[in-house]
């Protein structure tokens, strides 16, 4: 038996807190009866409806995926392009990506069917470090690197302080490889940050998400997250 709001969150209805609001508003039924009690517990045999629509209680699953270039971070695409869930043909649960990586960005992406897990990791008040390695046009100067660390303006808003480390410079090809660590999740943020200091990105990869990395994986590979990894991600997010 589990609390109703927890089951709703795992089913991807909403975060646990938003699920509680739905319950208090009288929009949730269990076995045909409206339930407003936040401590109400349900089993897998109970029929749960939100706004008269049944939810489906699945066992939560969690995957770490090495997203290749040229793949959409979505469960479907109206242009018929390859999406991340195409790499999980044998997974019965309705999984979806936690956040996104751009079409032309490769690297570490999490997928799950656990709404509470996804919402916690994506919530702006929780600060999980994400490490990217970028190849950019031009040689990044020391002051430009420091600007990234202080924060730069993108889309009219300053970014939070980041970490930036020059990994290598190719003066013959006029390019730089730089590692950038951020904890925000704004759209195309790393690309825009590097463009803001005058160095367009030619290649971008997310190497780490929190303590997780791509060790042992090739593009298109995935592995199941271990139970302690899921718990550690949640604990680390809420400590921030």
UniProtKB/TrEMBL annotation:
* Membrane-traversing stretches: none
Q: Name one Pfam family in it.
A: S4
Could you tell me which Gene3D superfamilies the record lists for this protein?
Alpha-L RNA-binding motif (3.30.70.1560), Pseudouridine synthase I, catalytic domain, N-terminal subdomain (3.30.70.580), RNA-binding S4 domain (3.10.290.10)
Name the PANTHER family on file: PSEUDOURIDINE SYNTHASE FAMILY PROTEIN-RELATED, RNA-BINDING S4 DOMAIN-CONTAINING PROTEIN
**GO BP term, pick one:** enzyme-directed rRNA pseudouridine synthesis
Q: Which family does it belong to?
A: Belongs to the pseudouridine synthase RsuA family.
**GO cellular component terms, semicolon-separated:** cytosol
Q: Where is the RNA-binding S4 domain?
A: 2-65
- EC number annotated for this UniProt entry: 5.4.99.-
Q: Name the Gene Ontology molecular function terms of this record.
A: RNA binding; rRNA pseudouridine synthase activity
Q: Does the keyword S-adenosyl-L-methionine apply?
A: no
> What is the enzyme's class at the highest EC level?
isomerase
Q: Which InterPro entries match?
A: PsdUridine_s_RsuA/RluB/E/F_cat, PsdUridine_synth_cat_dom_sf, PsdUridine_synth_RsuA/RluA, PsdUridine_synth_RsuA/RluB/E/F, PsdUridine_synth_RsuA/RluB_CS, RsuA_PseudoU_synthase, S4_RNA-bd, S4_RNA-bd_sf
Name listed for the protein in its UniProt record: Pseudouridine synthase
UniProt keyword annotations, A-Z? Isomerase, RNA-binding
Which organism was this protein described from?
A: Aerococcus agrisoli
């Amino acid at each position: 038996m589990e609390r109703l709001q927890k089951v709703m969150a795992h089913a991807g209805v909403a975060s646990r807190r938003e699920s509680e609001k739905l319950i208090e508003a009288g929009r949730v039924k269990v076995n045909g009866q409206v339930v407003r009690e936040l401590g109400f517990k349900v089993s897998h045999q109970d029929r749960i409806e939100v706004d008269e629509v049944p939810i489906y209680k699945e066992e939560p699953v969690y995957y770490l995926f090495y997203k290749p270039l040229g793949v959409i971070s979505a469960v479907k695409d109206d242009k018929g392009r390859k999406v991340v869930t195409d790499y999980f043909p044998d997974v019965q649960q309705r999984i979806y990506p936690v956040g996104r990586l751009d079409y032309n960005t490769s690297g570490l992406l999490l997928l799950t069917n656990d709404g509470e897990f996804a919402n916690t990791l994506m919530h702006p008040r929780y600060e999980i470090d994400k490490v990217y390695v970028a190849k950019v046009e031009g040689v990044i100067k020391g002051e430009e690197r420091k600007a990234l660390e202080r924060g730069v303006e993108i889309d009219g808003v300053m970014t939070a302080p980041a970490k930036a480390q020059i990994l290598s410079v190719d003066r013959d090809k006029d390019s730089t490889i730089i590692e950038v660590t951020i904890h925000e999740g704004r759209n195309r943020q790393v690309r825009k940050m590097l463009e803001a200091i005058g160095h367009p990105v030619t290649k971008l990869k997310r190497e780490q998400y929190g303590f997780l990395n791509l060790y042992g994986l090739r593009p298109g590979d995935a592995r199941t997250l271990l139970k302690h990894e899921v718990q550690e991600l949640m604990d680390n997010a809420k400590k921030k």
